[in-house]
Amino acid sequence: MPPSSPRGGSQPNQSMASAAAVVSLNVGGELFQTTTATLSRAGASSPLASLAPSSPSAPHFLDGDPRLFTHLLSFLRHGRLLAPSPPSAALLAEARHFALDGALLASLSPASAFAPLSLRPSALLPLTGRAAPSAVALCPSPPHPASLVAAHGGVVTCFDAGLASRTSVLTPLPAVDSLVAVSPALALAGARDFPGVHLCRFSDDASAASADPDVLSWPGSPSAAVLSMATTTASGAPSPPWLFSSFESARRNSSAVVVFDLNSLSPVAEIGRKDVFGADIEAAIPATKLAWLGGHNLLLAAGSHSGPAGVVGDIRLWDVRASATVPVWEVREKEDCFADVAASDTLSAVFKVGAASSEVFMADLRRLGDGGGIGLEPWVCIGDGQKAAAAAASGRKERNGCRIECYCSWVFVTRGADVEVWSQVELASEAGGKQVMRRNWVGSELSTKTKIVSWAFGGSRMALARADKVSVEIWDSATAAICANP
């Protein structure tokens, strides 16, 4: 049968120069018209990029589904998928047929589209089995598409950036406490009561993985458990591909942060080793939170201990290039110790949420060296200062379960089932022109959902795992922007 009338073609009064660049395509009996410039965006690996100009009377024939090809051609024109979003498995298969799946997945969740106040629930991903997710992670985007990794029980499941397909890996861990997504083909999992960092490979390339180890261990204590992990790939700044892993020995009498090269998967350095002598546990608190500040070339390592006197913690900043034994800055937390701590390259600051007050505090990295830095009180409360002072004076000893995380130029805090976001705003000139932090809520403040146990940010997405829910929530601001501006 002859192809139907052209779809997406050019106007009859086009110039001879532009007509010479027009490509006519017969896709499943339907005629499409586009330009060589549009098809060149498919990349050299796609057969579409090599198609020469052709007339409607002699179109190139492509064996494909015209309904799906319409979306792919629109993607090449606009650089983003307008609909459907996320793409169906059939659309991804069609994109793979034309070698467009990589570019399509990479465009789904761009970090440039991230806007915290525009985050909306976009998908609910059910997990197999009965175990609720204990940890979630998103691949850094760029350089990778923001695919999702979720740990539930001893299983680690990876969803592609389109959230249309999944691959699961069974680990020997009874439950995963810390999870890092290195790439769409590799994730790292650790547990507080089980030795080593376990590599979860989602690629079918068995030959490449055969030479690599399955477990990364602390050379000084192979039976040590993993308390926290971080990678340099999560920051936008150019850095060596390193993994930082906080280890604690099986007897809980020594700890250290070990640096691994992600290319060779071999240990390259040991940072801040601590050993417990006698009953002085507070002198050697291991790091339970790690974060890499690529723009400052600093590693944040923080840990706390609950005892009869309350919560006590240490926060340290390490310059990996300068010294592995002495931090460049350190503070001991006693009054209103942190429930959680995070660091922001963009804002040049360290943030904490108080264990007693639940208020958010900020320490400017540019002022931490004033007067030597070690042991000084650096914190400025950006929340309710009176509430923070009252909580510190009351001597409360319990934790509040709040979490804090930095992404791009925003600071996020979980409070039970809800998420609040802090952003930096500049006051008007008549008010002094100062930059201050302001708080808003993501979604509804009066949430009826269960407590958030893990979360992650990547691309334009936020992923949430809730207590007793065998699924992962995906919140996306790019989807909201596309719906608002079709």
Automatic annotation (TrEMBL):
Please name the GO terms of the biological process aspect recorded for this protein, alphabetically: protein homooligomerization
**Source domain of life:** Eukaryota
- The residues covered by the Potassium channel tetramerisation-type BTB domain are 23-105
Span-the-membrane segments of this chain are: none
Known InterPro entries for this protein? BACURD1-3 (IPR045068), SKP1/BTB/POZ_sf (IPR011333), T1-type_BTB (IPR003131)
Q: Which SUPFAM superfamilies match?
A: POZ domain
Annotated pathway: Protein modification; protein ubiquitination
> Sorted alphabetically, which Gene3D superfamilies does this protein's record hold?
Potassium Channel Kv1.1, Chain A (3.30.710.10)
Q: What is this protein called?
A: Potassium channel tetramerisation-type BTB domain-containing protein
- Recite the lineage of the species: Eukaryota, Viridiplantae, Streptophyta, Embryophyta, Tracheophyta
